[in-house]
Amino acid sequence: MDGMIDDDGPASTARAATPARAGEDAPPGGPVRWPELRFDNSYARLPEAFHTRLAAAPLPRPRTVAVSADAARLLGLAAQRAAEPEFAEVFAGNRVPEGAEPLAAVYAGHQFGVWAGRLGDGRALLLGEVAGPEGSWEIQLKGSGRTPYSRGADGRAVLRSSIREFLCSEAMAALGIPTTRALAIVASDLPVVRESVESAAVVTRLSPSFVRFGSFEHFYAAGDAAHLQQLADYVIARFYPELAREADPYLALLGEVLRRTASLVARWQAVGFCHGVMNTDNMSILGLTIDYGPFGFLDAFDAGHVCNHSDDSGRYSYAMQPRIAEWNCWCLAQALMPLVAARGHGPDDAKAVLTRWGAAFDAAHRAALRAKLGLAQAHPDDHALIEALFERLQADRIDFTLFFRRLSRVRAGAADAGHDAAGNTAVDGADDGAGPCRDLAIDRAALDAWLARYRRRLALEARGDAERAAAMDRVNPKYVLRNHLAEIAIRRAREGDDSEVARLLKVLQRPYDEQPGHEAYAALPPDWASGLQVSCSS
Predict the structure, then answer these.
(1) pTM for the full predicted model
(2) CA distance 265 to 324
(3) CA-CA distance, 336 to 350, in Å (whole number)?
(4) Where do the H-state alpha helices sit in 377-522?
């Protein structure tokens, strides 16, 4: 979403590649020397066609709102650094760490299914790439001011959207879903106009790479085969070196990206995550969740749920996400075709790779759903059982997260609905082996019928109830970033109280644990939450 911001206008003329902003004061002070940040800026070594070098726009009186110690460890950066005066200055963009080479990357993309042309980092700067203890991470400042790709917009992010991205990036990582990470939020009283006047903020994002499908589309659309190949070769050498040995490394790259993307979206579906804006410029070449904008986790289940208020057609609804991801892979394939053709292959070869989508997604999705239901062995009737469950979830708008978390308390057995394992009639609300799931349903009798069927299926499993329940609780989170939880943290931060951001982060970093004392974070959303809306400005 960095190339599609709140007040889009015509693309501005690119500035000359320079680390300073004409007509603006240079960032105060010299480079910050943090020896643990060891920069090796591979993307900056690519030619000028890939990026524009410039400094961030100074952010007045920055303050640190929140820091993820887990993300800091990825860089080898001690969380205690956040207490140093330089921390807010660096991650506001006011000062540059020694060894960094700030730049804004260019890319293009299809937005809502329509070719949007050149986009790029319209409100983000890549500081550089740090060699961390367990791998390299690019550090990016989102909300750091205008770039040549801002299309007339201000290049700023607001505190509201920064808190949402910070929390969800770290929450997704804790859920085990591939994602970019978030190091910190730095805020300022600088006013920013969106639907109303809000305050500015910068969120620091981390990723092994921010290259997107749209990065390839940019050079393809420009007819620039040389730079297209250079980008592909860079990605393969740095992230997929094993593909260089393939007969056609570019077809192999397409296949691996397709596989990772299918696996990613299957995981989204399994936790009820809706991205909101699956444009090709928001699709990671590494199969990561990237560019958190109008995202949302399902509360009451609705396959047609659209989390983005700007998505009038429902293109990016929950149910559509797998199809859109596949469509995006076709766009990537088209962008790679000049390289594929140069290797002596044609469209049919690319189509043969793309036809793997269905099998890749279905295998990943079915495995995830079987794990959620505690089914260690596949059974011929499992698909029908799962289909029947989702019909019930849809019919009664049952809370997605709570249902699957409570499902682990169902006991195996051949009892009929309303009867215990001995065949005795169960009193409504008594423990008859069906667990507390029925409390979430409107039509209890219908859900009881499904639960009886499910219990009979569990009786075919080799695992006992306790072992199965423990395994289910490791894949069915108790805590997700529901919109109302983020909204509470945002409102308090706007009032000057950042403590709820830190408290919520701590809960979300242990999504599968019970966490006594924090049950309110796992409760059904309050009535006022139904009125919350998020859009591309969120």
Answers:
(1) 0.92
(2) 10
(3) 9
(4) 382-396, 400-407, 444-458, 465-473, 483-494, 499-508
pLDDT in tens, 334-389: 999 999 999 999 999 999 999 999 999 999 999 999 999 999 999 999 999 999 99
Say what angle helices 357-372 and 321-342 make with each other, to 10 degrees.
Answer: 140
Are 117 and 221 in contact, with CB atoms under 8 Å apart?
yes
Among residues 88, 477, 90, which one has the least CA distance to residue 271?
477
Helix (H) or strand (E) holding 345: none
Q: How confident is the model at residue 516 (pLDDT cuts 50, 70, 90)?
A: very high
* φ, ψ dihedrals at 442, nearest 5°: -85, -50
Active site residue 448: no
* Cα–Cα dist 456/324, whole Å: 36
How confident is residue 531, by pLDDT bands cut at 50, 70 and 90?
Answer: confident
Q: Scanning the structure block, which residue is given the tokens 């480079």?
A: 31
Contact (CB, 8 A) for 39 and 184: no
Q: Which of 275, 365, 260 is nearest to 317 (CA)?
A: 275
Q: With the C-alpha atoms ordered 314, 318, 323, 324, is the resulting torsion angle positive or negative?
A: positive
Task: Please state, in angstroms and rounded to a whole number, the distance separating the CA atoms of residues 207 and 286.
Answer: 10
- Hey, is 437 helix, strand or coil? helix
pLDDT at 530 exceeding the cut of 90? no
Q: Which of these is catalytic: 6, 154, 281, 291?
A: 281
Contacts for 368 with CB less than 8 Å, ≥ 6 apart: 266, 267, 269, 270, 475
Asked if 139 contacts 36 with a C-beta cutoff of 8 angstroms, the reply is no
Nearest 5 degrees, angle CA 34-CA 37-CA 38? Answer: 120
519's CB contacts (< 8 A; 6+ apart) are: none
Which residues, including other chains, have CB under 8 Å from residue 80's CB and lie 6 or more apart?
none
Give the span between the Cα atoms of 361 and 321, in whole angstroms: 11
